[in-house]
Prior knowledge:
The protein is mostly beta strands. The chain contains 1 helix and 9 strands; from the N terminus they run H-E-E-E-E-E-E-E-E-E. The chain is globular, with a radius of gyration of 17 Å. The protein starts with a helix and ends with a strand.
Amino acid sequence: MRPLFLRIFFVFLGSLVGFQAMALSGTWKFTEIIYKGQRQPLLNPDLNLQWTFFSNGTDRLYWDRKGIAGFCERFANYKVLTDEEGQQTLDEEVFAANPKNMFECARDADMQPGRKTSNLIDISKKEILVHFNLGDDEIVYVLTPFSP
């Protein structure tokens, strides 16, 4: 039998994981980018990118473009980890891609089963900021709550 403090620790740890999943739960729409510290509108205003986070630790990334037939969709397991400095990362591993995805999805690394990523993330009630490294630069996706 485990000592009582270990059981309490594991219950606490499980509640933290659940708390992070609840903070993200819901559908978020890509609405802006931040590049070199400046907020900018989407480069392609016809892009409809939605990221849905489920409380069970899975997520769905979906995108299409207004006026163009087809879509890309994939599913991943995710965790939000917090380091000793309080920075959070979104760790994901893609486990499935929709077989009906349009052909160009095959060129998108984020649509490949087995793909693992880890990105800095800032979570608030009004937006999620997901940081992507571009060599020496960084681009930040701004996601806002979305109701389909």
